[in-house]
Structures are given as structure tokens and as C-alpha cells.
Amino acid sequence: MLDGRVAVVTGAGRGLGRSYARALAAAGAAVVVNDLDADVAAETVASIVDAGGAAVAEVGAVGGSEMADALVARAVDEFGRLDVMITNAGALRDKTLRNTTDDDFDLVVTSHLRGTFTCGRAAAARFREQGEGGRLILVGSPAGQRASFGQTAYSASKGAIVAMMRTWAVEHAKIGVTVNALVPTALTRMVATIPGLGELVEKADRGEPIPEDVRRKGLGSPDDVAPLVVYLASAASAGVTGQAIAVGGDRIALWTHPDQVAEQLRPGGWTAEAVRDVFDGELKGELQDYVPAPLDRGGE
Fold first, then answer.
1. Catalytic residue among 20, 155, 158, 221
2. Of 34, 40, 103, 240, which one has the fewest beta carbons inside 10 Å?
3. Domain count, the chain
4. Are 138 and 165 contacting, i.e. CB atoms less than 8 angstroms apart?
């Protein structure tokens, strides 16, 4: 399905990123494996090569332009081209607003949002140079779509990534580059601290079956997410762009684009009293639920 294609996967040393890299390689792609941790990056590369695939490691933290350029250059130097960029890497600081420091916020936003921006920009420039289209697969999260207690910086980053995806999809349609965002959920170490999930994560790590009711809610292993990545990286997905796609366990779903759900007009404009009245009346039943659904959190 991906023979001859070349992909970069950031944050591919563990968890979902590792599953993405392995699945891409199994489908025929050559893969540049990026991670901050050289040892786990090497382990991912070794698992791909041992299975007969092609992969190299490029170690470093995403965020700055230098790392993004290095990833694209490594793909071109090793394999001759770049077709797919998957921006999966990012740090997490599980803290409420009052406990989030400037350094916490900057670390999370730099790794997730700025890392997606710089890697996406570098890849898009290469796609334009090659003149054969390409695939940008950005990684969002339910935390960027709905409330996620204790995730100020992470939610901000993931929400911005999905918004950026939509803009990039419009900007790059004419050159055959599709841009989509995954909204993955999986039993990884990132969700192990959520009440009720720690034991499930341990079972998944041991390779034990995941209960059917959990899978139907959208939680499975990282390998359950990877088939969507392979599809979006392929030529078959040329007609799919600008989408936020939830995936996990037994479920694939599409998130809506933000849209107005209710409207009120008042000739001559509004007063504070009129605004109060309309929120007490016509708009009261239209207020949106901001509370996350059970198990509604996932990540890299």
C-alpha cells in the first residue's frame, strides 16, 4: 500500500508513535523515526529492520526549525524523498491552571504546537519542491476538542493543532497535499493516571485482551490506531482532507467542524439587559455541554 513512500514520524520511540512507524513500514514505507530518547528510537528502528522494513533514527526534540529541517533532510538523504509527515511528538504536564508554571506551559506548547508547526512547514516545503503532493498527518486529542481537567497547556496545543490543520488543508489543496488530524485514544502510559484506566493499561502492556465494552468506547491498543495512519498516508486517501478523525479500539468517528448552533437577532443591536434576557430565555436550552465523556482522553 505504501511501497516507495517515505515517512517521518515524530515521537516514534514509544506508544502510539511506535505503532505508527511500525505499521507504515509494514505497509512498505521507509520511515525516519524521531524521538528525544536515543535508546527507544533505536529500539523502534531495530524492530522495523528486523521485520524486513527500512528505517533510520533521527534523535532530538521537536519544536525548533533546526530539528524540523533535519528530519526532512534525513528522509531525503537516506531515501531520496519525503511523502508523509506525522507530527506525533509532545510532552505532557498534568496540572491545573493554578499549578501550571510558565516553564510547564512553554514545554508543552513548544513540543506539541510549535513542533507541529515547524515540522509541517518543513514537510510542506519539500512537498512543493517535489511537485507530487504529500500527506500531513497531525495528531490532536480529545483534550483539544472537549474539557480535560488538569490539561491547560495540552488542551490549548491540541485544539490549536486541529484549527491549524483546517487552514493548512485549504492552503495546500492546489498542490495535492492532504492535511488531516488524528484524535486518537489508546491505552498508553499517558492515560494510566486516569481513575479506572491504570489496570487496563497494565493489561494492554501485557498483551491481554481488552474488554469489549472498553473497545466499543474507543479505547484499545496503540496498534488499533495505526491502520488509519496507513490509510491517510496512502494514495487511496487523496480525497480526504481537512478532517479531524477520532480513532481507537473498535471505533472510527468524525468530529464536526465548529459551527453556530443557535442565533438571535435584535434590530438596532444589543443592551446588557437584552443579552441577559435572551440567555435566560431563547438561548438557555442551547448552551453546549463542555464536560468530557467517560474515557474521553487520549494521546501520544
1. 158
2. 103
3. 1
4. yes
Task: Give the CATH number of the domain where residue 118 resides.
Answer: 3.40.50.720
Of 154, 155, 157, 217, the active-site residue reads 154
Strand partners, 105: none
Q: What is the largest CA-CA distance in the chain?
A: 71
pTM: 0.93
Q: Is there a domain that residue 271 lies in?
A: no
Closest CA to 85 of 42, 49, 130: 130
**Catalytic-residue membership of 284:** no
Inter-CA distances, 260 with 156, 256, 271, Å? 21, 11, 21
Q: For 275-292, how does the pLDDT look when each residue is reduced to its tens digit (9 = 90+)?
A: 999 999 999 999 988 876
Task: Identify whether 290 is a catalytic site residue.
Answer: no
Q: How far apart are CA 128 and CA 268, in angstroms?
A: 49
30-35 and 54-59 strand pairing: parallel
157 is catalytic: no
